[in-house]
Design a protein that fits this description.
Layout lengths: L1 H30 L3 H10 L3 H11 L1 H37 L4 H34 L1 H18 L1 H17 L14 H13 L5 H13 L4 H4 L1 E2 L6 E2 L4 H11 L3 E6 L1 E10 L25 E3 L4 H10 L4 E5 L5 E6 H9 L9 H4 L2 E4 L2 E5 L4 H7 L12 H9 L8 E3 L18 E10 L2 E10 L1 H4 L5
Parallel strand pairs: 2-3, 5-6
Antiparallel strand pairs: 1-7, 3-4, 6-7, 8-9, 9-12, 10-11, 11-12
Length: about 450
């Protein structure tokens, strides 16, 4: 009879440990699922288990409370059964090795507690946890029905516990939720994309495009516009012949039309407008009469809003105004595309001459108009925060004056240097040599990495 009770108790221990595993599995499986995964599974399978998973996922707070209750009850019951049952197996073995009866009983209880805890942790918690994390949907389909039956039996008690917990949580200023938050911020999505690229789940080029697209929504018009100093424009009293000549000279098709300067922009003309004017009238027809109005956006407008404005503008061009109402630059559809995809060249562009980054040896020739965040991504140099947005601005701020050709300076270090997720630079300190100036604007700079020891020779 004692043997029968011992065997029955041992089977009860195994059953209770398995029950603990069910509750642990449902807990990790449901918290590891995304709403989209659950909804898609219902559409694809549509069976009883799929709908049960969706039901419990939408009632997560109640189900998790039931799982916690189940884990607590089964763990306590496991300990209650396991220690005396297992100690009965250990006591004779300990007496055989020479321990007294009283000592064997005490040591057996300790060993029983250790073994019971080990078995309960491994088979009741760790194994089902790891399975649920690895295969959350498959695990949820298996365990959802027995767990739901337990929750129905203890429904009233679970609701009472939940209401008590929710009352305390609300007193802490937090509103309880029945579902996991499945929305992701741009930063979280970007982190997922980079992680997928590093683990081989996404092609590196695809990951770059997605990452840049996510960053584009947070960029402002001021960051990706064509700056005022590089805009080719025409005057309102220029003729159509001047439009054709300007297009041939620059390779551009659209030009702002101004009265005096860009702060007094009348509109925009397209080179195709020239063909609407008879040949004999092109030398006398003024562009002010052909210019179409162009939208104006503030330089703080975010990328998504700028894209919407550019797409809706008939001219596919918008002017960017600074905080003082002056024209800071303009944004074209090409600027938007290049912000997401990188540089795009057509048959009119000199790709080699217009590249913002050209590497030779360990040095880089970089356009002065490149934004400092792009330096971090492409070259590996991380600029400190300051009153500048471009490499040219960084050079001017560091020198404290308008640069001249062949100026050489040690670039400042960032307080929080770091490398790009997709590009690796050489690191260390960097020097900049100004090679081309366009009036008072820095046009080209050569960046060269140096060691900390070499940097001492450039420090004042």
């Amino acid at each position: 009879m004692d043997i029968f009770i011992s065997i029955l108790s041992l089977l009860g221990f195994i059953a209770l440990t398995a029950s603990t595993g069910l509750f642990v599995a449902i807990e990790f499986a449901l918290t590891g699922l995304e709403r989209s995964t659950v909804d898609n599974h219902v559409r694809d399978r549509g069976d009883r288990s799929a709908h049960a998973v969706q039901r419990d996922y939408q009632n997560l707070s109640f189900v998790l409370s039931g799982a916690q209750l189940g884990i607590t009850v089964t763990t306590l019951a496991t300990g209650f059964l396991a220690e005396p049952v297992l100690s009965t197996y250990f006591t004779p073995l300990l007496e055989l090795v020479g321990l007294s009866e009283s000592a064997s009983t005490a040591v057996a209880l300790v060993l029983a507690l250790i073994v019971a805890t080990f078995l309960s942790m491994v088979f009741g918690e760790l194994v089902p946890k790891n399975v649920a994390i690895t295969m959350p949907l498959e695990t949820a389909r298996v365990v959802v029905h027995p767990v739901h039956a337990f929750n129905l039996v203890f429904k009233g008690f679970i609701h009472a516990m939940n209401r008590s917990a929710n009352f305390i949580v609300r007193k802490l200023g937090i509103e309880p939720a029945d579902e996991l938050a499945t929305a992701r911020s741009n930063q979280e999505l970007g982190s997922l994309v980079r992680s997928s690229a590093e683990q081989g789940g996404l092609d590196i080029n695809t990951a770059k495009v997605i990452d840049r697209s996510l960053q584009f929504g947070e960029a402002t018009a001021n960051e990706f516009m064509t700056p005022r100093s590089t805009i080719a424009y025409l005057n309102a009293d220029d003729t159509v012949d001047a439009l054709i000549a300007k297009s041939l000279e620059t390779g551009h098709s659209r030009f702002p039309v101004v009265r005096g300067d860009l702060d007094e922009t009348v509109g925009v003309v397209h080179v195709k407008d020239a063909f609407s004017v008879p040949r004999e009238a092109r030398s006398t027809t003024l562009l002010g009469a052909l210019a179409r109005k162009v939208p104006v956006v503030p330089d703080t407008l975010d990328g998504d809003a700028v894209l919407s404005t550019v797409r809706s503008a008939g001219s596919q061009v918008v002017l960017v105004a600074d905080e003082y109402g002056g024209t800071a630059g303009l944004v074209t559809i090409e600027d938007v595309v290049e912000e997401i995809l990188g540089e795009v060249y057509d048959e009119h562009d000199d790709a080699a001459a217009e590249q913002d980054f050209q590497k030779f040896g360990s040095s880089w020739e970089v356009s002065g108009l490149v934004r400092v965040d792009e330096l971090h991504e492409r070259v590996g140099y991380t600029a400190p925060d300051g009153p500048y947005e471009t490499l040219g601005g960084l050079v001017m701020a560091t020198l404290g004056r308008i640069p001249t050709v062949q100026d050489v300076l040690l670039l400042p270090q960032s307080d929080n240097p770091g490398m790009s997720e997709f590009e690796t630079g050489i690191g260390g300190r960097w020097i900049a040599r100004v090679t081309v100036m366009e009036d008072r604007r820095v046009d080209k700079v050569i960046l060269t990495p140096i060691t900390d020891e070499e940097a001492k020779g450039y420090q004042k």
